[in-house]
Write a structure and sequence with these properties.
By secondary structure, this protein is an alpha/beta fold. It is about 55% helix and about 15% strand.
Length: about 190
């Protein structure tokens, strides 16, 4: 199946949307996220949560945080535990339950959400606040309800999941690059 010229026009138009969103990433907020990560005390844990494409981005961020010497935990990385929680309690509690059980003050929660409206993300942020964690977000759709619960957030003004997820992925690479360039790994 070939879409011909229409397909190329559509692809070029969509690519313009992706590029425009990448250019609109609020750099001061991204820098503040990196600064907050560098302030996590040695030995403390950075928890990361997301759903769907944001779940994949959460795993990606955890990988890069570990590469630069941080203790990081993907809250959706343990499928057995995740499905047990969803079955025995509710899907809305899959992240907050783990925060309540395992997190300590001075740990950090990073949420990645296209909409900023997922109940499990909102509940995780609320539980993190109750537990004394600092909260960060990579958010799309103007931030949604999650933005009010984040101490610092990179908020994108796009309501289109594809470009938002690509922009979040770019933020993850930039976070890793800034951390790798600015951290003395011997002290972590």
């Amino acid at each position: 199946m070939s879409l011909g010229g229409y397909g190329l026009f559509m692809l070029a138009d969509r690519l313009k949307n992706y590029v425009a969103l990448l250019a609109s990433i609020p750099l001061h907020s991204l820098n503040a996220v990196v600064q907050a990560i560098t302030e996590v005390p040695s030995g403390r844990t950075i928890y990361v949560a997301g759903n769907g494409g944001s779940c994949a981005n959460a795993a990606h961020l955890v990988l890069h945080l570990r590469e630069v010497g941080f203790r990081a935990e993907d809250l959706s990385g343990d499928n057995v535990y995740l499905t047990a929680l969803a079955n025995d309690h509710s899907y809305a509690q899959i992240f907050s339950n783990r925060i309540r059980r395992y997190a300590s003050p001075n740990d950090l929660l990073v949420v990645i959400s296209g909409s900023g409206e997922s109940p499990n993300i909102i509940m995780a942020l609320a539980e993190a606040k109750r537990s004394g964690l600092k909260t960060l977000g990579l958010l799309g759709f103007g931030g949604g309800m999650a933005s009010a619960l984040c101490d610092v957030a990179v908020t994108l003004a796009s309501w289109d999941y594809g470009p938002v997820e690509v922009a979040h992925d770019a933020c993850i690479h930039l976070i890793k690059e800034l951390l790798a360039d600015g951290i003395d790994k011997s002290g972590i």
